[in-house]
Amino acid sequence: MATKTKDQPVKLPRGNVEERGGSWSLRVRLGGERKRIPLGSGMSEAKAREKADAWLERMAREGYGVDAPPAKREGVTVREHFAAWISGALLREHGPVNGLREKASADVDGWRAAKYIYPAIGDKLVHEVTEQDIDRVMARVPRERREKTHLQLYSLLRRGFDLAVMPARLRKDNPVTRYHRPPKGTAKLFAYLLPSEVLALLACVEIPIGRRVLYALAVYTGLRKSSLMALKWKDVDITHAMLAALITKNGVPQLFEIPAGLVNVLRAWRARCGDPADDERVVQDVECVETREAEQLREDLRAAGVTRAVLFSKEKNVAQIRFHDLRATFVTWAKRAGKTEGWISDRTGHLDRAQLDRYTRAARTLADLRIEPFPDITSAIPELAPAAADGPAGPLTEGGGTPEGGPTGRTHGHLEPIPVGRLHAR
Q1: Where is this region: Disordered (predicted)?
Q2: C-beta separation of 17 from 75 below 8 A
Q3: Where are the domains of the chain?
């Protein structure tokens, strides 16, 4: 860019001085884009403004930011735009416009974009993407994959290009049309675990203990994987047997009671981890590969001696067991235990009536087999059993009560949640 001569009038660019964490910076718009120029730390505001003025004068002399036309945002590629959205950069730049918020599923969405979107159109400019390009992306998903995989990719594309219209203003229309939405697939037999299979899974010492704690949390809370992975120790109230899920898919925080057996397991798990700080994650370092947790669960089930054929079936009308089906296991068990839809939704978030009806049918099967849900898992994980069984309120008996003859908490043949430390008659 040519520098301005001394005869030309010098027009200063406009900028603001900001302080964050003790460091000062100059925010200025150059060529239609906002830039941040570090000014340094350990100085007064007056000194920071003095340095900022020097920067502005220099940029004016050299012609930067003066009379420059706004940058054309259509030069952004699909990869750059989706990465900005998924990472949260788009939210930081524009704020909560058009429903923008922090993505709880950023990791899996990033993986999905890298696998299906970027290889097909990642280097293409956003404004150049056509409906035919979306066809090519959708065609990358193998036909044998579940219908939900196709639907998740469609939703990711639809939302990403909707944000390209507003607030990114990279194009005026959305190339993802309703015709790209995958057709509703045929009904499939969904998978869930039986109580005996969960106990076998938790008892298998060949499986890393952290992963077994994660499985216990999933089955006994009904939370999604993203919520489980975000749990911190400060979210677990051992004294009152309550758990707060603050990171959820729909953005609505949840607070609910958890069973005594799970409380005992978590207390023993924290002690085994060396009493980590409250801000530490409960299920960190669980040795579970983020993008293949379904295969990992199936491998773990086989290692635990669980061989029920329907869990591993590859028939077109059967869904193989996945990590998400631990949530389905929780709902099925809860319906079998006679829990209300409100009780279940308090723990799982939004579930519509059609979904719950599917779990009701599965619960009837458990009732026909006279299988009781939610067995006590206090001693289910061998490495944690001694510490879990000998908690602050005294060891729990097999029936759920204290050795002194306290309440058993047994209703309809299963253990009701009993807050450790305040076992009282209900």
Answers
A1: 386-426
A2: no
A3: 1-70, 73-180, 195-368
Single-letter amino acid, residue 34: R
CA distance linking residue 27 with residue 35, whole number of Å: 6
15-74 pLDDT tens trace = 788 888 778 888 877 666 677 788 888 788 888 888 888 877 777 766 655 444 444 444
Fill in the amino acid letter for 69: P
State the pTM of this model: 0.61
Q: How far is CA 207 from each of CA 286, 317, 321, 362, 398, rounded to the nearest angstrom?
A: 10, 30, 17, 28, 25
pLDDT digit string, tens, across residues 215-243? 999 999 999 888 898 999 999 999 999 99
Enumerate the β-bridge partners of residue 281. 232
Q: Which amino acid is at 97?
A: V
Q: Which residues contact 194 (CB under 8 A, 6 or more apart)?
A: 308, 366, 371
Low-confidence ranges of the chain (pLDDT < 50): 1-10, 66-74, 288-290, 393-426
Query: 158-165 — which CB contacts under 8 Å span 24+ positions?
Result: 160/81, 160/82, 160/85, 160/113, 161/126, 161/129, 162/98, 163/81, 163/85, 163/90, 163/98, 163/100, 164/81, 164/126
Q: How many CB atoms neighbour CB 421 within 10 A?
A: 15
- Which residues 6+ apart lie within 8 Å of 283 measured at CB? 210, 213, 214, 217, 228, 229, 231
Residue 247 to residue 301: CA distance in whole angstroms: 28
Whether 316 contacts 391, CB under 8 Å: no
User: Which pLDDT score, from 0 to 100, does residue 166 have?
Assistant: 94
Per-residue pLDDT tens for 7-16? 444 455 667 8
CATH of domain 195-368: 1.10.443.10
- Burial code (b: 16+ CB inside 10 Å, e: under 16) for 103-117 equals bbbeebbbebbbebb
Calpha distance 396→324 (Å, rounded): 30
First to last CA, the chain: 79
Q: Which CATH number fits domain 73-180: 2.60.40.3930, 2.60.40.10, 1.10.760.10, 1.10.150.130?
A: 1.10.150.130
**And the tokens for 50?**
């003095």
